[in-house]
Write a structure and sequence with these properties.
This protein has 223 residues and is an alpha/beta fold. Helices cover 34% and strands 21% of the residues.
């Protein structure tokens, strides 16, 4: 229900909805259906058995929506002022990617750039982890060469995260990579510096989404 609510509130195009009888068992579900119908969204009720065959979760909440989200381009990203971006390089876990998008949106990043090898930002697990941020936060897909050219053209200062990096100052774009392999060498090569979060003795690393949250907070609040 949360994702459908967020899609509607964000103005994403909901072209149709399938509901199960159980949606009407909660006030929230009843109200959501009423709101969608008031906005002329086609609603089709099906049996619990049919609905279960359509859902991709073990405990569905009684509603499935067909959504046409906004597709962002690089030209849609406002870079004036002290803009902050997040760049994801090859993070494969969809839960982490969704959490990264949710965190970037919450902490004021203008957009998130997604590079090769990163989990599908529109996959069901990614969408659920993003908690609706995907419908509001610009997500731009780039190949490596296109991203490097775009960053240079717009004078984007790129800082790559690494365990042996320097303590974090104020930066413009934060690049996080695959938790096992790290950021790919040619992206490290075009980064101005490598930065790190100081960890307690004996701590090896942080989850990539947690690390990105700390980094984005530091960037947005300065030091």
């Amino acid at each position: 229900m949360r994702l459908v609510e967020e899609a509607h509130t964000a103005g994403a195009g909901i072209t149709g909805v399938v509901v199960a009888p159980e949606l009407a068992r909660t006030t929230r579900g009843t109200e959501l259906r009423a709101v969608l119908e008031r906005h002329a969204v086609p609603v089709q009720e099906v049996s619990a058995k049919v609905f279960a065959s359509l859902a991709d979760t073990d405990s569905p909440q009684g509603i499935i929506a067909v959504v046409e989200p906004r597709r962002w381009s690089a030209d849609d990203v406002p870079l004036e002022g002290a803009a902050m971006l997040l760049v994801i390089d090859g993070v494969q876990d969809p839960g982490n990617v969704g959490t990264l998008l949710r965190t970037a949106h919450a902490l004021g990043a203008r957009a998130t750039v997604v590079l090769r090898g990163t989990a599908d930002v529109w996959g069901p697990k990614t969408l659920r982890a993003a908690m609706g941020a995907t419908f509001r936060h610009p997500v731009i897909g780039f190949d490596d060469a296109g991203f490097i050219a775009w960053a240079r053209r717009h004078n984007v200062t790129l800082w790559a995260t690494a365990s042996d990096g320097e303590p974090l100052p104020r930066v413009l774009a934060v690049l996080v990579g695959n938790e096992g392999a790290g950021i790919r060498p040619h992206l490290n090569a075009v980064s101005a510096k490598r930065v790190a979060i100081p960890l307690a003795q004996g701590a090896e690393s942080l989850n990539v989404a947690v690390a990105a949250g700390i980094l984005l907070y530091e960037v947005s609040h300065g030091r």
